[in-house]
Amino acid sequence: MSARAHDPGTDKARYVSDMFTRIAGRYDLMNGLMTLGMHHGWRRVAARETIPIPEGPVLDLATGTADLALELCEVHPHREVVGADFSLGMLRVAAEKLARGGTARHLRLIAADALALPFEDRCFAGVTSAFLLRNLADLRAGLAEMKRVTRPGGRVIALEITQMTVIGFAPVFNFYFHRVVPAIGRLVARDREAYTYLPESVDRFVAPPELARLMEAVGLRGVRFRRLGMGSVTLHIGIA
């Protein structure tokens, strides 16, 4: 295993983009295997948190293969949804998925960097993301961009993997996450490095209360978070 699996180094954005492009073809399969299919339910919960937002389009940031964006289309069948990602490999897989399904005609995919979004201020009624934040080279700047492009009264909603703290279950989960997941990644995605980076990036990421404070620091109001998946995933919500 290369040392790079443990530390993306100074050019984290390029490392993450290259990594997700490498695993794009097996990304959906790996998500299903790692979570026993539960990730669809987590995305559904996140999408439903956008129901109270004002009129206007919704941005799904780091859309990947568009699973959360498609959930948004289900919740908002008449609202424009934009799925943005800086991994062209992920966007290609997402486009192929849309071409096969043909049920999300109001979903548009674009290439965009979460730290420099190509949108005007306050142009979206809501911004969602699933498993983006721990991959950002500058977390506070990324949150500030999400807030910048959200209309007053709109919501910023983020799903993120969380360090397990449930007494008795945490050691089991940590063994699975740090030992079993990389092995599955090697066999299924043929990329142990990417699925070694995954648990280690979670280890380095801020705890939910600290993330809530950062969301407040960039100007989001009414910030709250909710644990899902026995505490292995946290849904963060803030109002612009």
Fold topology:
Elements: H1 12-35, H2 39-48, E1 58-61, H3 67-75, E2 81-85, H4 88-101, E3 107-111, E4 124-130, H5 139-148, E5 150-161, H6 170-189, H7 192-204, H8 208-217, E6 221-228, E7 233-239
Parallel strand pairs: 1-2, 1-4, 2-3, 4-5
Antiparallel strand pairs: 5-7, 6-7
Helix pairs in contact: 1-4, 1-6, 2-3, 6-7
> Beta-strand percentage?
15-25%
In CATH, what is the class?
A: Alpha Beta
Distance between the termini: 43 Å
Compute the number of strand runs: 7
- Uncertain runs are 1-5
Shape verdict: globular
Instruction: Tell me the radius of gyration.
Output: 17 Å
What is the level-2 CATH architecture name? 3-Layer(aba) Sandwich
**How are the strands ordered across the major sheet?**
3-2-1-4-5-7-6
Using brief descriptors, characterize the structure shown.
seven-stranded mixed beta sheet; alpha/beta; 7 strands; Rossmann fold; disordered N terminus; 240 residues
Descriptive report:
- This protein has a single domain, classed as Vaccinia Virus protein VP39 (Rossmann fold, 3-Layer(aba) Sandwich).
- Helix 1 packs across helix 6 and helix 6 packs antiparallel against helix 7.
- It has a 7-stranded mixed sheet with strand order 3-2-1-4-5-7-6, with helices on both faces.
- The N terminus is likely disordered.
- The chain has 8 helices and 7 strands.
- It is 46% helix and 20% strand.
- By secondary structure, the chain is of the alpha/beta class.
